[in-house]
């Protein structure tokens, strides 16, 4: 799963830290270097998915890697949060996607594009279980080169 994490998320260069965590027991199945998730962080993530409305309120949020984040979107399948520090030019954030068995957690820095990070996390979360998340043996599919899709001139 580490290769999946590296290729699908870290390979975008728009995610600074990421992990795949099993929901059942909180085991970290794959992670980027310097990623740390405490049991309290995992409980907050679980609570965010159980009560998404509470996470979106002004008084609550998520603390991830010692940085407070406020949710800008939260539902039963994903949580998007931005840095909570007021008057800060820091535009970092965290994206958490829930699959049938795992949480996909990714953080991005101010120099990175949030839209690219969101797309990478959501694509990985929507991938068919046989391709990546439910099995430990990965089956990555190679996409055809861009030239394949171009119309051939006559």
Automatic annotation (TrEMBL):
Signal peptide limits: none
Transmembrane segments: none
Name this protein carries in UniProt: Profilin
Keywords tagged on the record: Actin-binding
Family: Belongs to the profilin family.
Record keyword Glycosyltransferase present: no
InterPro entries named in the record: PFN, PFN_euk, PFN_sf
A Pfam family matched in the record: Profilin
Domain of life: Eukaryota
